[in-house]
Specification:
mainly alpha
Length: 414
């Protein structure tokens, strides 16, 4: 039997299916980020336009946001494992399409290659609209409720490990093997993920005959629940705003090529720095969970994220830029653990898919729409001014939320 959740930092790791799930989550993250980094670098080499980088995020976000609520509804009413397997198969097919489009023997003109890249990314966003809600809603069924905080920390750690390895090796693989062979490696990793998912048992669907309602009623229930829980709504809204305006990941190729002049390998290091900061912080959070005063800690973490973003924006030194990105990842990891624990703690089992999908829309809006916002702002205002503006907006929003949410400061979840 697992030890007491408060004394056993490895409690969640004692459940084999949870370990398989976390490993699969880390690997799919690594694979998709390798693909994202090398495609982004290739697109910027072809276009030298930061807006073209932003369009990559937009191409993935539009189908995901449109489908995520339906995907959450489906995850609450169908077998989650089956949804994962079908969705992952679609993502693999899209990656195979990218391999064909970028292979030398295909000899597509640059304009057609860009069209195929955006089209494949659009289809991946479509598949993620089903994959992400099913994955997020399956997670809490793999461990007991008393280990949710520990599980959130470990799940985030595995995810961050994938987020480190993906960008960290993407630049080296690109230089060593070229774009197409790197994409082949991505497909191989995804096949390993499919194998891991197959080891997880199917879970019963917690919907009775009386609970079977039409899809629009079901979706509205999930939306009303999120907007009715102030702690959940504020948590995911803060993440949305901070990453939407303060995120710099999408325009890192511009910094690597034109500002810091460190090339593809330097881009890999810059891209990995936030995740390195995150995973090291996650190790500390296993032993020192930030849940004694979660709301206070969340606001401090997001404010720290904004300050680190400002430092990165004004830096012209490669190593200072790495440190600033490292700190953005460290502060973001604290907010991730608090937000995930809050969502899992306050969400009933029968609504996890829908609540996860609403959360996923907020997260996707912050990440992918944020990538488009970063590219557009960099084109309109310049790369450095756009980053400084984003960090300033993050700090302003944190101040406003702090003034409007003082009743949440007394909440404890340890």
């Amino acid at each position: 039997m697992p030890q007491n959740a408060k004394t056993d930092p490895y409690a969640a790791l004692r459940y084999p299916e949870f370990v398989a799930y976390m490993t699969a989550n880390g690997l799919i993250t690594m694979a998709l980020l390798i693909q994202e980094v090398v495609l982004g670098y290739e697109v910027y080499k072809i276009t030298h336009d930061p807006l073209a980088l932003g369009l990559i995020g937009l191409a993935e976000a539009i189908p995901y946001i449109c489908l995520a609520l339906f995907g959450g509804h489906l995850a609450d009413r169908k077998d989650k494992k089956t949804i994962l397997q079908i969705s992952l198969s679609a993502i693999i097919l899209c990656s195979l399409l990218l391999i064909w489009a970028t292979h030398q023997s295909t000899q597509l003109p640059h304009s057609q290659m860009l069209t195929m890249i955006y089209f494949a990314i659009f289809l991946i966003g479509f598949a993620r609209g089903f994959y992400s809600p099913a994955s997020s809603s399956l997670n809490p069924f793999l461990i007991p409720k008393e280990h949710f905080a520990n599980g959130a920390t470990w799940a985030s750690s595995f995810w961050q490990a994938g987020a480190i390895l993906g960008p960290g090796i993407a630049g080296f693989l690109y230089n060593l093997m070229g774009l197409t062979n790197t994409l082949i490696c991505v497909v191989v990793i995804m096949l390993v993920v499919m194998t891991l998912i197959s080891t997880i048992k199917k879970r019963p669907v917690l919907i009775t005959g009386e609970q079977k309602v039409d899809i629009f009623t079901s979706l509205s229930e999930g939306i009303r629940f999120v907007f009715g829980k102030k702690i959940i709504l504020y948590s995911i809204s803060l993440d949305l705003i901070s990453v939407l305006f303060g995120g710099v990941v999408a325009i890192l190729p511009v910094f690597a090529e034109d500002i810091l002049k460190v090339g593809a390998e330097g881009l890999g290091i810059l891209r990995a720095a936030p995740s390195i900061g995150a995973v090291l912080t996650m190790v500390l959070l296993v032993y020192f969970p930030p849940l004694n005063k979660p709301w206070r800690n969340l606001l401090i973490a997001i404010a720290g994220f904004g300050v680190a973003t400002l430092v990165f924006g004004i830096s012209e030194n490669f190593w200072l830029s790495i440190v600033a990105l490292f700190l953005t990842g460290a502060f973001d990891s604290i907010s991730v653990v608090i937000r995930q624990t809050v969502i899992r703690h306050f969400t009933p089992d029968e609504m996890r898919g829908r609540v996860s999908s609403v959360n996923g829309i907020f997260v996707s809006s912050s990440n992918e729409i944020g990538a488009f916002e970063s590219g557009l702002a960099a084109k309109l205002f310049g790369t450095v001014p756009s980053v400084i503006l984003g960090g300033s907006i993050t700090l302003a929003i944190v101040t406003i939320v702090w003034l409007r949410s003082k009743e949440l400061f007394s909440l404890k979840m340890d």
